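Database export, one record per block. Field names are fixed; values are copied verbatim from the stored entry.
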Amino acid sequence: MASSLLPEFRPVSHSRVTLTELMIPAYANFGGKIHGGILLSLMDKVAYAAASKHAGTYCVTVSVDGVNFLEPVEVGELVSLLASVNYVGRTSLLVGIKVIAEDVRIGSVKHTNTSYFTMVAKDDVGKPTVVPGLLLETSEDTRRFLEAIKRREFNAQHRLEFDNTLTTLAAEKQLYLLDQERCKIAY
């Protein structure tokens, strides 16, 4: 049962957060691009902020879905991470994050990442706690909520199929799969 101090529902807009940070040389890898780990750390921070705003409590990251680096991020660009809660379960929240990089010198803006962080709300003793429902204010909010349901269904089915494949995998009978791969068996 949700705490009497928390509202029964909170609007998506309540959880919206934007984090903007200048990409400095210390964030760059040997190729001169921003480390993916730096971007992941920023995504984790903004996911926490959005989830905690909605839940009204501490939240932890349980999984990350769909981290694809679409464009490199350069030193000197302003990176903005736009996050909001797209879906809530009983104790979990799915936070959608869009990452954009802006070169303020030339006025270019590029979409570099979209990712989804599943967070779980925790109470004061570290146990999962019920979160408020999500008030869908726009058709876009509704679309994202429905997408999240489909994403959960797809991920659950994928995990089940993958686990079944691993359970039934007889390596000796599958060696033909290596014929077209860039590997060599040394035993």
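Remark 1: The beta strands are 9-11, 17-22, 58-65, 78-88, 92-103, 108-122, 133-135.
Remark 2: The helical segments are 12-15, 36-55, 139-168.
End of record.
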